[in-house]
Amino acid sequence: MKLKILSITLLILMFLPVSVLATVASSSTIYNGIDVSNWQGYINYSEVKANGINIVYIKSSQGNNIVDAYFKINYENAKANGLQVGFYHFLTARSEEEAIKQADFFVSTISNTVPDCKLAMDFEQFGNLNIEQINNISEAFLQRVIELTGKEVIIYSDASNAKNVFGKNLALKYPLWIAEYGVEVPRSTNWEVWDGFQYTSSGKVNGIEGLVDRDKFTENILLSNNAEIPETPEAEKPESEVPEKENPQSPSKDTTYVVKKGNTLSQIARKYGTTVKELVSLNNISNPNLIFPNQKIIVPINSNMQDDNLYDCNHIIYTVKKGDTLSKLAIKFKTTIKEIAKLNDIQNVNLIFTGEKLRIEI
Q1: All domains in the chain, ordered by first residue
Q2: Which of 93, 107, 108, 228 is the most exposed place for a label (fewest CB within 10 A)?
Q3: Cα end-to-end distance, the chain, whole Å
Q4: Which phi-psi region, left, alpha or beta, contains residue 12 (left: φ > 0; alpha: ψ -120 to 50)?
Q5: Which long-range contacts (CB under 8 A, 24 or more apart) does 172-178 make?
Q6: Are 197 and 225 in contact (CB under 8 A)?
Q7: Region at 323 (left for phi over 0; alpha for psi -120 to 50; beta for the rest)
Q8: Distance between CA atoms of 109 and 107, rounded to whole angstroms?
Q9: Neighbours of 179 (CB within 10 A)
Q10: Pairing outcome for strands 315-319 and 296-300
Q11: What is the band of 248 on the pLDDT scale with cuts at 50, 70, 90?
Q12: Which residues lie below 8 Å from residue 126, measured CB to CB, with a gap of 6+?
């Protein structure tokens, strides 16, 4: 009898509409896309476009005051080569008040730009927040972005969170950019359709060295109003009262580390002067012995490293101080003179200048 019931159930599932079992595209018009951050380094957008890419989503900011080191150059070069551009903010807020502040910072960062695509919230590291808090924080952030820009927004989420964390109230109000790898069609979520579908983190595109996220976007990802983002009250304050875009005075206490092949949590904990327990708690990791290449992990920055530097994925932008040498910096950050010189295209390793900004892997 159980076998008969199972057979009937399978037959019913076979003939159900795909939309019941999956989240489907919101339109039949599909654009090829990528999403990028400082992790990709310098990108040749002429080659990217020639490789059939139409849309590029660019990480602009993270947390309360971190501007992606390649945000500006990615935007300018993508636009110059005729690509349609969107921006996303990596949200780390732990309250609605902080969400509003991060929305202000996001909009301030992208002010005076002309995006073509909906402004995206990337909220994927929840710490100890419960589902109600996550949804309230998301709503506060998204509404503030809309209020400041007058533009449509979108939620970036993996399929699991789109089903189990972000609620139906959000799904009814905001479109979805879904991430699920190794599938032709994303699984069923609280959304019926997607405007964006990130289908791999291991894509290859001409003009980009290494791997890149690949996406499909429907025509609904495009903004109905693609006017310039106006300057916000935050952006109009005197320079001393707002975070400097490449040298914030109050650095975030956390940064994001992208796991490399062979990494363990204990290695990452030692590197950043923290503990496995703290990493597990910050990232809600169920099995501390199981992490994956390209996984993004929030790590606390040791206070003695906080100086006045801008932190991003696996790197800082260090501002050279009087008396600094590449040798001293190599020792301080446990790297080599050769690596710093290579990252910054330094021809004379004996010549650096006070106030110069250097990209350093940590």
Answers
A1: 23-236 (3.20.20.80)
A2: 228
A3: 61
A4: alpha
A5: 174/142, 175/26, 175/118, 175/220, 175/221, 176/23, 177/120, 177/215, 177/221, 178/23
A6: no
A7: left
A8: 5
A9: 25
A10: unpaired
A11: very low
A12: 134, 165, 284
Mean pLDDT of all residues in 155-172: 96
How big is the chain, counted in residues?
362
- Contacts for 296 with CB less than 8 Å, ≥ 6 apart: 124, 125, 256, 257, 258, 259, 313
8 A C-beta contact, residue 276 and residue 288: yes
pTM assigned to the model: 0.64
Q: Helix/strand/coil (H, E, C) string of the chain?
A: CHHHHHHHHHHHHHHCCHHHHECEECCCCEEEEEEECHHHCCCCHHHHHHCCCCEEEEEEEECCCEECCCHHHHHHHHHHCCCEEEEEEECCCCCHHHHHHHHHHHHHHHCCCCCCECEEEECCCCCCCCHHHHHHHHHHHHHHHHHHHCCCEEEEEEHHHHHHCCCHHHHHHCCEEEECCCCCCCECCCCCEECEEEEEEEECCCCCCCCEEEEEEEHHHECCCCCCCCCCHHHHCCHHHCCCCCCCCCCCCEEEEECCCCCCHHHHHHHHCCCHHHHHHHHCCCCCCCCCCCCEEEEECCHHHCCCCEEECCEEEEECCCCCCHHHHHHHCCCCHHHHHHHHCCCCCCCCCCCCEEEEEC
Question: Catalytic positions, please?
Answer: 35, 124
Token match 């921006």: residue? 87
Say if residues 154 and 138 touch (Cβ distance below 8 Å): no
DSSP strand pairing (153-158 vs 119-122): parallel
